[in-house]
């Protein structure tokens, strides 16, 4: 009873803190100045990480096994992974470009985990025989960490694409405006006034585009590194899962729906890393592949669980004993 109450308290505290962090970012984006918004959000994410860590430890002690046996526990661990990915670069360089993405991802996953949809599996249950193995921690934790890293990296690529296409749109609009001024016959004074306005706008957009170019460069930099880390975790997770499958079911690979989509995910991000070796394909081209990978990850992690079939049906909405 004590552990259940403590878990409930930690869940709501962490959710409240990360909600405040999101609010701070929204206020900052709207242009209102508050005292040290960056430091406040960073401290909030650290507090969220500590709360989620305490929640997982409490769940571990309460249930008697590592909390990765069902969808609810994996979502909490995914939230913890997002906060961990946020903290690591912050502790290293004291500057973090991932705050908005990691905070949003944390509140989304934790919000869904604590929603009414998963109330049936909030309470810890005894592990089914297939999950009673030391490989549970190794395999599932690596897979969830890889999902978190790949999702963050993919979202950075999505942001890169949005900014890039917006620049293309405004550049196209500006060129059309210049052509329009030359097409119509203005009086000399009127023409000069219009031309000066356009030149001022062009100078403004040039300065603005410089900062956008710097932002795109940073997004590309962090996207590549976070996805590379996630790809390593995914590879280790798939290999450890194959060894565990051989021990449990007598076969390294069974083309189970979960295994198949994990392999597809691995292929997509292998293609992404391959495109990074070609300078002509870096930037927007590789970001398109990462964006596709973002959709594939959700199918692999969540979409397959909706079906509740196959050898990996333990993580479906209704936890079965088969």
UniProtKB/TrEMBL annotation:
Pfam families: Cytochrom_C_asm. Required during biogenesis of c-type cytochromes (cytochrome c6 and cytochrome f) at the step of heme attachment. The gene is ccsA. This is Cytochrome c biogenesis protein CcsA. GO terms for cellular component: chloroplast thylakoid membrane; plasma membrane. May interact with Ccs1. Residues 68-312 form the Cytochrome c assembly protein domain. It comes from Cynara cardunculus var. scolymus. It is found in: Membrane; Plastid, Chloroplast thylakoid membrane. The keyword Membrane applies. The lineage of its organism: Eukaryota, Viridiplantae, Streptophyta, Embryophyta, Tracheophyta. The chain crosses the membrane at residues 12-32, 44-62, 74-91, 98-118, 138-163, 222-245, 260-275, 287-311. It is a multi-pass membrane protein.
């Amino acid at each position: 009873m004590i552990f259940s109450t403590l878990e409930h308290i930690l869940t709501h505290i962490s959710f409240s803190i990360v909600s405040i962090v999101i609010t701070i970012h929204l206020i900052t984006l709207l242009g209102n100045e508050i005292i040290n918004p960056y430091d406040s959000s960073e401290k909030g994410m650290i507090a969220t990480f500590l709360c989620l860590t305490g929640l997982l430890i409490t769940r571990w002690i309460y249930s008697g096994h590592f909390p990765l046996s069902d969808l609810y526990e994996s979502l909490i661990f995914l939230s913890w992974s997002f906060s961990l990915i946020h903290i690591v670069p912050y502790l290293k360089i004291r500057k973090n470009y991932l705050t908005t993405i990691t905070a949003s991802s944390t509140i989304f996953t934790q919000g869904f985990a604590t929603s009414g949809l998963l109330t049936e599996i909030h309470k810890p249950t005894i592990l089914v025989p297939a999950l009673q193995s030391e490989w549970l921690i190794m395999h599932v934790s690596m897979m969830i960490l890889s999902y978190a890293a790949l999702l963050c990296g993919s979202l950075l690529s999505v942001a890169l694409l949005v900014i890039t296409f917006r620049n293309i749109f405004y550049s196209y609009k500006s060129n059309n405006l210049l052509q329009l001024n030359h097409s119509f016959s203005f009086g000399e004074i009127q023409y000069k006034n219009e031309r000066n306005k356009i030149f001022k706008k062009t100078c403004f957009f040039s300065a603005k585009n410089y900062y956008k170019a710097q932002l795109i460069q940073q997004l590309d930099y962090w996207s590549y590194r976070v996805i590379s880390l996630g790809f390593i975790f995914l590879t280790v997770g798939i290999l450890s899962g194959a060894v565990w499958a051989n021990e449990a079911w007598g076969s390294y690979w069974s083309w189970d729906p979960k295994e198949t989509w994990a392999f597809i995910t691995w292929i997509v991000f292998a293609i992404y890393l391959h495109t990074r070796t070609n300078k002509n394909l870096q930037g927007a081209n590789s970001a398109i592949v990462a964006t596709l990978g973002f959709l594939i990850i959700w199918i692999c992690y969540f979409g397959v669980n909706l079906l509740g079939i196959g050898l990996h049906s333990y993580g479906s909405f209704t936890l079965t004993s088969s």
